[in-house]
Design a protein that fits this description.
About 20% of the residues lie in helices and about 30% in strands. A hairpin with a 6-residue loop joins strand 1 (about 25-30) and strand 2. The chain is of the alpha+beta class. The protein is globular.
């Protein structure tokens, strides 16, 4: 999928799907590279709380074994946990599951706390 195609898909998503009032779960598509560059993140960032970049940082710390498009298997999953907090409020625990699937990696993150 090209960057243009992903941008088009994201714009269609923004215009077609209602955005949730609070963000407790984030779905992301990441490039299958060591940098795990963000392709798409849903829901979009808010002015407060965790941003899509915070979730990408978690993905960048996960060591995912050799995965190429010819050996893709959705049954392989990798898990990571991280706690965020600035001392002002309750800490936010983020649990992420990563599924390597060819070129993109799928990421589903669940934030528990006061985002």
């Amino acid at each position: 999928m090209s960057v243009e195609q992903s941008h088009f898909m994201y714009q269609r998503l923004l215009s077609s799907v209602a955005q949730p009032e609070s963000v407790s779960r984030v779905f992301q598509l990441l490039w299958n590279t060591s940098e795990r560059q963000l392709l798409v993140s849903w829901p979009p960032d808010r002015n407060q709380g965790l941003s899509s970049k915070d979730f990408v940082k978690i993905a960048q710390q996960v060591h995912i074994g050799s995965t190429d498009a010819t050996t893709t298997a959705c049954i392989r999953r990798y898990k990571a946990m991280r706690t965020y907090g600035d001392g002002a409020g309750a800490p936010i625990e983020v649990e992420s599951v990563f599924i390597p699937h060819g070129t993109p990696h799928l990421s589903d993150s669940d934030a528990v706390g006061d985002p």
